[in-house]
Write a structure and sequence with these properties.
Elements lengths: L2 E2 L7 E9 L4 E4 L8 E4 L5 E11 L2 H12 L7 E4 L5 E13 L5 E5 L4 E14 L3
Antiparallel strand pairs: 1-6, 2-5, 3-4, 5-9, 6-7, 7-9, 8-9
Length: 130
C-alpha cells in the first residue's frame, strides 16, 4: 500500500502512474563541421498520477479521509512511496485533484463484504527532482 510522508492516506485499490518530463538539452551545430553537439541539461521533474478509493463505515468518515488527503495540498515537499515500494523524493501535492462525479457511494470491502461508503478519486503529485 502506498504512503505519503509515511502515512497511508491513499485508501484502497490504489494505482500510481509516474510520467517523467523530458530532459533539457541543447543541440549545437557549427558551420563547416559535420554533425551536431548535444549537451545534456539535466532532468526536469515528473508527475505521479494517483488514483484510489477512500473507504470508511459512514459517509462522513469517508469524507473525513478525503479531508485528510486534501490536507497535504500545502506546497510542502514530501516522500511518496508507491505500491511496488518505489520511492519518489521531494513530491508536492500541488492541488490537481478530481473526485469521482458520483460522490460518496455505498461499497463493500474485502472477502467478509464489510459494508461502508467509498469515494473514488484521482490526484496529481509533482516531483521536483529527476
Amino acid at each position: 500500500m502506498g504512503t505519503l510522508d509515511g502515512q497511508a492516506v491513499f485508501g484502497y485499490a490504489t494505482s500510481f502512474t509516474p510520467a517523467f518530463d523530458p530532459t533539457a538539452a541543447q543541440i549545437n551545430a557549427f558551420f563547416g563541421v559535420d554533425g551536431v553537439q548535444a549537451l545534456h541539461g539535466g532532468q526536469r521533474g515528473f508527475v505521479v498520477l494517483v488514483s484510489g478509493v477512500l473507504f470508511d463505515l459512514t459517509p462522513n468518515a469517508a469524507i473525513a479521509r478525503e479531508t485528510i488527503l486534501l490536507g497535504y495540498r500545502d506546497g510542502i515537499a514530501r516522500t511518496l512511496v508507491d505500491n511496488f515500494g518505489t520511492t519518489y523524493l521531494d513530491v508536492v501535492f500541488d492541488g490537481a485533484y478530481q473526485r469521482w462525479e458520483q460522490g460518496v457511494k455505498p461499497a463493500y470491502l474485502g472477502p467478509a463484504a464489510v459494508g461502508g461508503w467509498a469515494i473514488a478519486y484521482k490526484a496529481v503529485f509533482r516531483g521536483l527532482g529527476g
